[in-house]
Design brief:
Blueprint: E1 27-33, E2 42-47, E3 54-56, H1 62-67, H2 87-92, H3 95-104, E4 109-113, H4 119-126, E5 130-135, H5 138-146, E6 151-154, E7 166-172, H6 181-191, E8 192-203, H7 208-213, E9 227-228, H8 231-240, E10 241-251, H9 254-265, H10 273-289, E11 298-309, H11 311-317
Parallel strand pairs: 4-5, 4-7, 5-6, 7-8
Antiparallel strand pairs: 1-2, 2-3, 3-9, 8-11, 10-11
């Protein structure tokens, strides 16, 4: 098909415009399934020919995507009692983020949007922060509230009360799930103190591993992930919402590589002595080396208020920046 012609996917919905540049144009990329949760439903991923952002189109209603964060979702294993949480170990997963934020910002009020079981918040609380969180899954939110004693509200970010002003707002693995990333970043503008820090972490669709695995890449994760950003498009998205990026960090994740191998070959990894050698000799070292080469599987933007709104955002929100 041509860039301006009708997409060849049946039912592709041109109403969902690109969150980064506002273009309605789309080029079909992949048809994918929810391999993580084992559904047979198929989803189309398209590419914006103007800026390169990938998006799901058509996009299932939020209610359907919300239900795909079901009780069996692996990230809820600790909150829902399938794994026994060891606080230090769970907090340890966020050591890099906790150190980085504290390096850049004095302790104050933190809002973690999409806080999951709350261990990142607990780690920040231990460093002197007054923490609040919003979590989509009600039982997971209840765990963070009841078991960890944290100020966590259940509900989607666009439904929940964000409260007042914060010195730091974190969106760790959230922006890619949202119907409207611009609306969420505008809420961040409203609730972030003038000298506050915004942290946005997402997967990097531009990394070599994503290119290698294509539709089999674990982080494609349909239907939960509906946006796929790169270092360039994430910075543009933030700039368009009046944020000035002061640093972009890259991270590796060996489990993403391993789950991608599973997706590609339809068989558990590791399942042979060769797999175990591959894991030790290639996958584990790559997760450490690739981020240093600007090829992180995950990217994390540290931004502050500054600059104006893009024309696309101003038009969408009906306000001038
Ligand atoms: Zn675009």
């Amino acid at each position: 098909m041509s860039e301006t012609g009708l997409p060849s996917f049946e039912g592709v919905d041109s109403q969902i415009t690109c969150a980064v540049c506002g273009s309605a144009l789309q080029r079909p990329m992949w048809t994918v399934r929810d391999t993580l949760m084992g559904s047979t439903e198929q989803y189309n991923i398209v590419r914006c020919p103007e800026c390169g952002t990938l998006r799901m189109s058509p996009r299932p209603d939020f209610s359907e995507r919300r239900s795909s964060f079901s009780d069996t979702y692996p990230l809820f294993d600790w909150a829902l009692g399938r794994k026994r949480p060891q606080a230090d170990q769970r907090i340890g997963r966020f050591t890099a983020q906790i150190n980085e934020i504290n390096h850049r910002q004095r302790p104050g009020r933190l809002l973690d949007v999409g806080c999951g079981d709350g261990f990142f918040m607990l780690g920040m609380q231990r460093r002197g922060w007054a923490v609040s969180g919003i979590e989509l899954h009600e039982k997971v939110a209840a765990y963070a509230h009841d078991e960890l004693g944290l100020d966590v509200r259940g509900g989607a970010e666009h439904e929940a009360d964000w409260g007042g002003q914060y010195d730091c707002i974190t969106l760790l693995g959230v922006i890619e799930d949202l119907d409207d990333p611009n609306a969420c970043l505008q809420r961040c503008q409203e609730h972030l103190a003038e000298s506050g820090l915004l942290v946005v972490q997402t997967h990097n669709i531009d990394c070599l591993e994503a290119k290698f695995f294509g539709p089999h890449w674990f982080n494609v994760e349909a239907p939960r992930h509906v946006w796929h950003f790169s270092p360039d498009t994430l910075a543009r998205l933030l700039a368009g919402n009046g944020f000035r990026q002061e640093a972009l960090l890259h991270y590796g994740a060996a489990y993403v590589t391993e789950r991608s191998i599973e997706n590609r070959r339809g068989k558990v990894f590791p399942s042979s002595p060769f797999d175990r050698v591959l894991r030790k000799a290639l996958i584990a070292p790559a997760a450490k080396i690739m981020p240093k080469l600007g090829q992180g599987i995950m990217i994390e933007s540290y931004s502050r208020k500054g600059g104006g709104k893009s024309a696309a955002v101003a038009a969408a929100t009906g306000r001038q920046g």
